[in-house]
Amino acid sequence: MKKICLFFVFLTLFCTMTGFAGGGQQGSQGNSITLTVWDEYADNEMRDAIEQITKLFMEKNPGIKVERVAKTTTVMLNTLRPAFMGGDAPDIIETEVGIGYIGPFIRANYIMDLTEAWKTYGWDSKLAAASKQIPTVGNMTYGVGHELEAMSCYYNKTKFAELGLKIPTTAAEMTDMLQKIKDAGYLPLTNYMTEEWSSNMNTVGTFMYGFMSKEEIESCMNNDGPWNLPSVKNAISCLEDWLAKGFFPRNPEVGGDNAADAFYQEQALVVITGNWSIGGIERVVGNKFETGIFSFPSGTAGRKASQVNFCGSGYMINNQSKNREAALKYVDFVLASPETAKIWYEVGKVIPPYTGNISGLKVSPLTQLVQQSLNDSAINNTAGINMWLPPSAFEFFSHAGQRIIMKRLNHDSFINELQQAYDTDRTAKATRATFN
């Protein structure tokens, strides 16, 4: 035991002398700093945007070198834990900011408290409220939310006109519309719910928010309110009904690499997705057909639907980093600058949280439609379930849609298991109402 203790003493001294612990490097030239960033911008438009932004940051800050490592969401989660435990985590992490995803890292003191940084950099007056609201629990703000997203129904506007289809205002009207699409020989929806967690959460969450009131959502998410609600039962029953009617692809629990492919190829006329798909639609569809967007309709006539929206990811800083000030400077430049916001809009095809004026901005028509829906008073815009779910409930929702497809869950057992998961999280003080 003494030998082990002595080993760790020498290891600690070695780490201190070599600068191993805490991510990043302080160069031998005094002011030269290397920032390590792990983010999820691995391909296509958002990768192009962050590469351009990072290059611009280094040109403006010659004493700081940024080394980016792009990872998928799953790889990020699987590699962050051992990196933190081994003292080799990056200075900056850009990933999901929901409490169920990042909460364990906060409790382990791996994530820097950015409450004062929000004041110092004036982000409250520069960024959208959701950018702070979502990565905040109790009196701690632990991140800066990035792109603003909303789950919507993207549809082939050209084919809708040919078939004489109207935009539905209720779930019952949408059921009739999808049946007409099927009768015309097209696949109504091209959504899958596979082992990939977000395909389950985003689809099931969209159904639930269409039926639940904003007050019900906030009660369940923020105050541990009961999930045994008629609206939740009706939402899952609607999903079961659409599956039984064949509105989804064959074997949607298995799926393919890209759920939108059938939409791109005009085999399916509707896809429920977020505005992260706009870049792909513009790139693949082009002028082949006109794409439109409508919000998932209300489950009850005369009542507002609650639209799922996110700060889909965000920036957080390693609490052990030796380069925290430089890291904050990078985050500020990436998210709170008009010149980088312009790049996010035009190159990344996303809606950044920056709320100031941007000169000469050119926003695509589809992005404009999403922005309008995010400001539409006729819709209850509410943070998506993956933003607020605690860990056990997060795990439940990660496979819920797939289990419904396989008939391992129905509307009653869905509610019972979800409530049990929340009870587990509440006991562990892991919900938004109990997190410490």
Report the uncertain regions: 1-22, 26-30
Query: What profile does the largest beta sheet have?
Result: 6 strands, mixed
CATH architecture of the largest domain: 3-Layer(aba) Sandwich
General shape? globular
Number of strands: 14
Question: What is the CA–CA distance across the termini?
Answer: 34 Å
| Category by helix and strand content | alpha/beta
Instruction: Provide the β-strand percentage band.
Output: 5-15%
- The number of helical runs is 20
- Counted up, domains total 2
Averaging pLDDT over every residue, what do you get? 89
Can you give the helix content as a percent range?
Answer: 40-55%
- CATH secondary-structure class of the largest domain: Alpha Beta
The Cα radius of gyration reads 23 Å
Can you tell me the CATH topology of the largest domain? Answer: D-Maltodextrin-Binding Protein, domain 2
CATH homologous superfamily placement of the largest domain: Periplasmic binding protein-like II
